[in-house]
Write the structure tokens for this entry.
Amino acid sequence: MELIQGNNIVRLVGTAAGRPCLSHESRGEAFYRLPLTVRRLSGAEDELPLLLRRGLLEKLELREADKLCVSGELRSFNNRSGEGARLVISVFARALQFCEGEDENSVLLRGALCRPPTLRRTPMGRDICDLMLAVNRPYGRSDYLPCICWGPLAREISLCPTGTALQLAGRFQSRPYIKMTAEGPLEKVAYEVSAAEIDRAEP
């Protein structure tokens, strides 16, 4: 994989799965959340959360089921409301426009492992490695992004120590799962980057 220009690059083409709703305000500016449905080659669909500035939305008369092209980056923050901290992942949109054509889901990241990778095996006998990548922003903060990889790549990456600099290419995906609570099973959705390629990078 060639050296990527920038630490955090996302490009999505998909369909608006709802209407924008207010997320929060920061420094006098309003930010909105919008779900975007992106179809995989397999036919499965990921419903992915977008975070947009009001100024970006005001340029479009956006309706549900519009086809959109989004360029931006992955962002994370710890939501401390409720029980315990919860890592929230979304696509921060830098550019948004109407488009046509095939769905697209492309993520390029460069960062460092911030915890030891975890190698495990699925019930079907396939190796999978969970890793957490710390990706620096230009002004001193970092985003902590959960990633996975499969097969021989998973076994290779599982041997990397914390602090290893990596760059990866893959897709941003949603994964439903069941969490057992005191009230019974609860359906939830996790978001992660599924990496198709991973290389060592310069620190």
Summary: DSSP finds two helices and twelve strands in the chain. Residues 8-107 form a domain with the OB fold (Dihydrolipoamide Acetyltransferase, E2P) fold (CATH 2.40.50.140). The mean pLDDT is 92. The longest strand covers residues 165-181.
